[in-house]
Amino acid sequence: MTANRFATRLNSFASRPQAEWPDLIGKPSMLQMAARAAKVAGLTDLDLNFPDHVDEKPAGMARKLGDIGLSVNGFAMRYYSNPAFKLGAFTNPDPAVRREAIDLTKAGIDAAREAGTNLMTLWLGQDGFDYAFQADYAALWQHEIDGIREVAAHDPDCQISLEYKPNEPRSYSLMPDAATTLLAIREIALPNLGVTLDFAHVLYADEQPAFAAALVARHSKLLGVHLNDGYAKRDDGLMVGAVHTLQTIELLRQIRRDGYAGAIYFDTFPDMTGLDPVHECEVNIATVKRMLRVVDRLEKDNRLSTAVERQDAVASQAIIQEAMLGPDS
């Protein structure tokens, strides 16, 4: 894991706009939000949504971000440009809409490459169903597989990362959890496919984050890690470690052991309640750095590996609490 690469959700920096742009009318531009993000100490990268954030030539946009000290970690597709996508992007019942979604994704991949990144994240939240007897499940799955296969084959040098989520906006997502996503990747069988783990999505898929990461490492490859937190009921987008501190540390330990080399991306929602996005992001970075120091201490403690080998929960909890909080005297 590259500990010194931290990326963030750009739209977070629209939070409390009056504090940053007192004369702003309407919404801040991509470059306005990026300039605000550049104030975050320790932030190195941004992820950009396509087509939302791309309103000029991608190469020129990347140069402007570089001028303020930020790199483009990757692009992420958004399927909001056509209202018909509400009924599905790759799985829409209308072949013309499916083609539009696939072609939009290919354009996004091309734009990402022009911006100097080889990572495209697909969150296919519109692909799913809401009612019993609404869909032919076999046909729906086939459309999804065909769509992902076509866009992944479009540029073999671009890594295509599938980000799963149990639901929202659809009641049931076709890619709801790690196992289903890995089944799709196995069926498509293209080497540039992998998985993005979003911590809050993993929680409300009723998964243990480190176990999900281990499965991904065993059966595919981990291409993205989105850190946040929540109460495992929805996509809360809380600050890192706010609720599930131990599980976050265990995930960081697991992905380090598995050789994850990408950025840590903060997919948090300070804009939902008007938090200061600069300070919020700086606290997230500081939290992860502290957690990584805990991981360092744990990796040097032979007692933990012995406890884990024996599946001795009491011993392992004692060791972890000591690493986090110090000795009891």
From TrEMBL:
Belongs to the xylose isomerase family. It is found in: Cytoplasm. This is Xylose isomerase. It comes from the Bacteria. It catalyses: alpha-D-xylose = alpha-D-xylulofuranose. The keyword Transferase does not apply. GO terms for biological process: D-xylose metabolic process. The keyword Isomerase applies. Its main location: cytoplasm. Its EC number is 5.3.1.5. One of its GO terms (molecular function) is xylose isomerase activity. Residues 52-270 form the Xylose isomerase-like TIM barrel domain. One of its GO terms (cellular component) is cytoplasm. Pfam families: AP_endonuc_2. InterPro entries: L-rhamnose_isomerase (IPR050337), Xyl_isomerase-like_sf (IPR036237), Xyl_isomerase-like_TIM-brl (IPR013022), Xylose_isomerase (IPR001998). Homotetramer. Keywords: Carbohydrate metabolism, Cytoplasm, Isomerase, Manganese, Metal-binding, Xylose metabolism.
